[in-house]
Design goal:
With about 140 residues, the chain is mainly alpha-helical. It is about 75% helix and about 0% strand. It folds into 2 domains: about 70 residues, no CATH class; about 60 residues.
Length: about 140
């Protein structure tokens, strides 16, 4: 017996194109990116797709997680790595400029202009540098 919520969901769900039982659910999902998008947006439940394909819902969920992992190890992951490397470079650059200010080789204004940041940012890195030196941690 279906609950009212299940019945409403069943009435609202758009069926995917009818297919015979696929040889590979993962291959089916790779061939039908619109179905993957609906699964990821939760406009289509794995349980509903599984019943239409004649497979267990865990089979659909596992195949979807593998495809999702492939998506995230592609371009998105590379963009994150690049952004992380850029942030690390910027941090190291700002630390070295703060050290130069601390040693008297640059003024705060000069360091801020070189780095393209505000004077407050240079002062913040100076405070961090002085705090590290005060605790004896060095770098």
């Amino acid at each position: 017996m279906m609950t009212l919520k299940q019945k409403a969901r069943a009435d609202d769900a758009e069926p995917v194109e009818p297919v015979e039982r696929p040889g590979s659910v993962r291959q089916y999902l790779q061939d039908h990116p619109e179905v993957v998008a609906r699964l990821l947006n939760r406009t289509l439940l794995a349980k509903d797709l599984a019943s239409q394909l004649g497979v267990h819902h865990n089979t659909v969920s596992k195949a979807l997680s593998k495809i999702d992992r492939l998506i995230h190890t592609g371009g998105v992951a590379q963009q994150r790595k690049a952004a992380s490397a850029e942030k690390l470079f910027r941090t190291v650059h700002l630390r070295s400029l703060a050290e130069m200010v601390h040693l008297g080789r640059y003024t705060v204004d000069e360091a801020a202009e070189i780095a393209g940041v505000s004077k407050a940012t240079i002062y913040r890195y100076l405070r961090k540098l002085e705090a590290r030196e005060g605790t004896g941690k060095g770098r």
